[in-house]
Amino acid sequence: MSKAKKDKIGKDNQVERDADFSVLKDEEIQIPTTPDLSKLEKDSSQSEEKDIVVTNEIESLKSEIAETKDKYIRLLAEFDNYKKRVIKEKSELLKYQGENFIYDMLEVIDNLERALKHAEGDPASFKEGIELIFKRLKEILDKWGIKGQESVGKAFDPAMHQAISMFNMDGIESPQVSEELKKAYFYKDKLIRAAQVIVAVPPENHNDIEALSEENNSTSGELEK
């Protein structure tokens, strides 16, 4: 290789080195620095404080859950006791529901006993006493919604009348009650005993006697049930 060529190669290499050095001078060279220990300690302290806050919140929630559970258990126990008490009261109410009525009826019994002690006295006074007792009895029955209903002269109703016997009668258009042997009684709006009656039937409707008898037997059977 000639000397001139060697000199040319040397110059080219020098130019490349100068260019690389120029690039290094233009760039900002970052030199690693020593970590700030105080900042690290501060960050660590803040992290520990956050952990403590979270832990306290968790414990508080656990306490609230335990308290709520305890209240629920107590409420459930109270409701169970209330239910048992209501069942007991209802059972006693059904068992002794006639207690007040019986108490009122004892007054009638007391009056009858006193009247019987003087039965051998003045008949007029005895009769008057019995009438007063009977009046008081009707007042008690009325107080409790027990009422009798007259049937004589009314149209025969198989749902309310039990025909003991029947006979033909002129001058009537439909079967009607001629005589009442036992009065019908209602408890409020419910029939508790049908009236026992004798029924008059128009002669031209003689066949109605058999029909009425069948209806009457059916109604009597239902009432007995």
From TrEMBL:
Keyword RNA-binding: no
InterPro entries attached to this UniProt entry: GrpE (IPR000740), GrpE_CC (IPR013805), GrpE_head (IPR009012)
Domain of life assignment: Bacteria
GO MF annotations in UniProt: adenyl-nucleotide exchange factor activity; protein homodimerization activity; protein-folding chaperone binding; unfolded protein binding
Key words, A-Z: Chaperone, Coiled coil, Cytoplasm, Stress response
Coiled coil: 58-85
Keyword Ribosomal protein: no
Location(s) in or outside the cell: Cytoplasm
Family: Belongs to the GrpE family.
Function: Participates actively in the response to hyperosmotic and heat shock by preventing the aggregation of stress-denatured proteins, in association with DnaK and GrpE. It is the nucleotide exchange factor for DnaK and may function as a thermosensor. Unfolded proteins bind initially to DnaJ; upon interaction with the DnaJ-bound protein, DnaK hydrolyzes its bound ATP, resulting in the formation of a stable complex. GrpE releases ADP from DnaK; ATP binding to DnaK triggers the release of the substrate protein, thus completing the reaction cycle.
Protein name per its UniProtKB record: Protein GrpE
Lineage: Bacteria, Deltaproteobacteria, SAR324 cluster
